[in-house]
Amino acid sequence: MKKVAVIGTGYVGLVSGTCFAEIGHQVICCDIDRRKIDLLKSGIIPIYEPGLEEIVSSNTELGRLSFTDEIGAAIQASDIVFIAVGTPMSATGEADLTYVKAVAKTIGENLNSYKVVVTKSTVPVGTGRLVAQTVAENRPDSSVEFDVVSNPEFLREGTAIADCMNMERAVIGATSDKAAKIIAELHEPFNTTIYITNLESAEMIKYAANAFLATKISFINEIANLCERVGADVTEVAAGVGLDSRIGAKFLQAGIGYGGSCFPKDTEALKHIATQNNYEFKIIESVIDINHRQRLIMLDKIKEALGSVQGKHIAVLGLAFKPNTDDMRYAPSLDLIPALLEMGATVTAYDPVAIPEASKQLPAETEYGANVYDTLRGADACMILTEWNEIKEMDLTRARELLRAPIVVDGRNCFSLQEMEELGLAYYSVGRPVVR
Ligand code: NAD
Whose CA is nearest to atom 41 of ligand 1? Predict the structure, then answer.
């Protein structure tokens, strides 16, 4: 059993902290956001993540997991301190390290015994060294030692608990064998592949992994756009291509591009790292451009379906950047709904969980439906932006009856062309022939 503090109790800190408690460690999750800590102390989970509430509650009851905004005390009481704060995209595209630096300073100020300081946040190469320097400069007693480790996180929102409990690998970038051993031992009960590297390689592995996945998405979206022009069906193409084990079937779903809190900022950050190092990273630049363009194809499709969007009422289904999360960071809906409104449409939107978060960010004139069918009633077209099960499994016959015009523009390829044809719905999807 190890004593662990996790600083930053967001999607990553809360899930990974809870999973470390689940495998038997003593974990204190800390945050500067008092509201978040108060909610957690009273058993309320501030984010939507399936299964999280149960595992937080069981570990809290067992006394293995606690929450505090007294970060200094939590650091002092722990042997391992994780940094899991946000590293958002700055105006210039690089990762904003303000929060990481602030936490490194706090760790330094509270360094009362040997600790391993672990960066879980996604950070540019060189940040581990910066954290080490900041901790060293701020420690009250320079004879107290510490080590810095990079241990990037690979969980996905929506399946975060399973991803963490069954992690495919733990990457440990360390400057000392002692620290690498401690963090490897911490992960032992996960029974996962431990991959030890130097600090810089671990930091780069995270960016390389996300950039590669983003590349897969932009690549299949390019193929999809070409499929539309030549009469091929991208779902058949992707399935056929994915049968090659060198390629694999995962991450080959054509759609309206990636969003969320990681891929957009991490691809931009990698591009920035390349530029800073006088390297033109051509693939990543294209991946970013393609992704931006891909969102906008939804506007072309709705115009193709309706002629003019002016004065039309659009039902938008799905707001979060992907299913099973309430995370709205860089969600396509944040670009597309304002664009529809600017083009003179009215919009009623629905999402199973993201409406409270979305309504803070979308224009005030956006209306919200109580459920899928309420949202579809009387609309001139339905636009699908997130492939929630509730949306994929909607009763299409009922949907057709509720819509004023039987038109579905689907950015996530939720339905088969055949079923839409049989039901008499006009269907515009991505990389597949139009059903009229
Ligand atoms: P988040 O915004 O959900 O959470 C960050 C938390 O840090 C917030 O609760 C914030 O209040 C807190 N915080 C900020 N400054 C603090 C400080 N000085 N002291 C204590 N707490 C502070 O972010 P997230 O989605 O959990 O991401 C965290 C990091 O993990 C990022 O670098 C991200 O790129 C990376 N990551 C995220 C995911 C994901 O799916 N969300 C997956 C892998 C890696």
Answer: 11
Interval 375-416: pLDDT, tens: 999 999 999 999 999 999 999 999 999 999 999 999 999 999
**ipTM reported for the complex surpasses 0.85:** yes
**Ligand 1 pocket member 12 (CB < 6 A):** yes
382 is catalytic: no
Whether residue 158 has its Cβ less than 6 Å from ligand 1:
no
Question: Looking at residue 433, what DSSP letter applies?
Answer: P
249 lines ligand 1 (CB under 6 A): no
Q: If you measure from the C-alpha of residue 415 to the centroid of ligand 1, how many angstroms do you get, rounded to a whole number?
A: 35
Annotated binding site: 31, 36, 87, 122, 154-157, 206, 251-255, 259, 265, 322, 329
Ligand 1 contacts CB of residue 32 (under 6 A)? yes
Which CATH architecture describes the domain 3-197? 3-Layer(aba) Sandwich (3.40)
pLDDT of residue 108: 98
In this prediction, residue 333 carries a pLDDT of: 97
Four-way CATH pick for 234-428: 3.30.365.10, 3.40.50.720, 3.30.470.10, 1.10.1660.10: 3.40.50.720
